[in-house]
Input
Amino acid sequence: MKLRELSLETSPDVTAAYADLSNDFNPLHVDAVFAAKTPFGAPVAHGAMALDLLLNAIEATFGTSGRQHLDIRFTAPVKVGERITTGGVPAGDGWSVWVHQDDGTQVLKGTLRLGGPE
Amino acid sequence: MTYQAAGTGTADRDVWTFARFEAGQDFGTVEVEMDAERHASWERIFGPTGDRLPRGMLVTAMMEAYIRAIQPRPDGNIHASQELDFREGAVVWGDTVAIEVNCAGKEERNGRFWVRFGIVARTAGRVIMTGTIRSIWAA
Output
């Protein structure tokens, strides 16, 4: 069994829409002039957008009920314009989950645990 | 959305720098209404949903609360990692989610300013999600 694969194009329009939705107008995401002066060199997509895509994949795989614990870190920046895709496989007593770009670079990775006490 | 009081007593115009954070600081509660406009915005990015609120939308609301509650802030903060615990029970579009934001701790490591922010999200008084945002603060 694998986690459902979902993809998202992080185009400038999508990134701007996510800035509106989250009220996150950090210039790293939406200001090319500012971003060019940072180590990233160009605008990067919101990390939470990749996280949301992963949560959509988790819901598509396991449904929307039940307790879930997710611990992730953002491992590489996503330049605006890249396509990102979710992935995950069972590992230990939970799941290893990730989001990667088309070139294989993992941009988010972590662990998912299902169930557990309230 | 309504914003109920940050608990620090510092002038609103002072930028939140690393030096000002203290474990246990309460940044108040931000209420986010999952209204039709927000629903449409979500679907423009991620596609159609049913009546049930995607858990990702809770995360997006968490980010909105974290950003609105701690202002003004320096440019260039980095969202480095995230822990989330989703509880049983459905949230639907049209509900209002109340999100508490606090400072869970901070640490200077390898010349970087790490700050952890605690999050508790409730609807109708029921906890639906808790989490920790780990950020590298820019200044």
Remarks:
- The longest helix of chain B spans residues 55-69.
- Chain B touches chain A at residues 38, 41-42, 44-46, 52, 54-57, 59-60, 63-64, 67-68, 75-88, 90, 134 (CB under 8 Å).
- The radius of gyration of chain B is 15 Å.
- The first strand of chain B starts at residue 2 and ends at 4.
